[in-house]
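Input record (one chain):
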Amino acid sequence: MKGLLYKDIVVLKKQISTLLIFVVVYGGFCVAGVFDFSIIGALIAVFGLTIPMSSVAMDDTSHWDRYAAATPAGRKGIVAGKYLFTLLVILISGLAGTVIMLGLSLAGLSDTPPVELVGISLSCATVTLLLDAILLPFLLKYGAEKARVISMITFVIIFGGAILLGGMMNNGVNMPQLPGWLAAALPVVFALVSVGGFALSFAVSLGIYARKEF
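The corresponding structure, as predicted from the sequence alone:
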């Protein structure tokens, strides 16, 4: 499995480096006042979705999965490698985004408190983890092309719903008020749901890949 993980890192090294450069560039745009600093946090979600999809797409193109399934790592190793690689991408992009936002904040270039900036990164990373939990089983079952449509639909539903909800609140629509204890515990609950969903997704993918025909 370590070899499969290393393969993904080497093959996508250039793409990962390019995306990290994008984080730095968008950080410059934030300093110039073109974008809000929260855009850097949003890039974490973009990285966490696009890089694993690119990994599966390259495997589909080269028929790598057929070869990898015959190695000692087997089908379980392929699935474990993809999930571990996805976690690594989310971790690296989240750390990079957090370091850049905190650096700009400590330099006096942002009025947002550092605690809120860290919260933005953690929230985006948690959302990305949940989205990948939904996406990865489809990627491993149908391949990157078909799963791309599913990921776009999921992305539109979740973020479109969030925008719609925000618009309703801004227009004065009364929304149900959560109890104080539930509102305070909501970030922890959502994090646990995301982690649990990712673990469940891994189990589902193992079952899917065990029955997959190449």
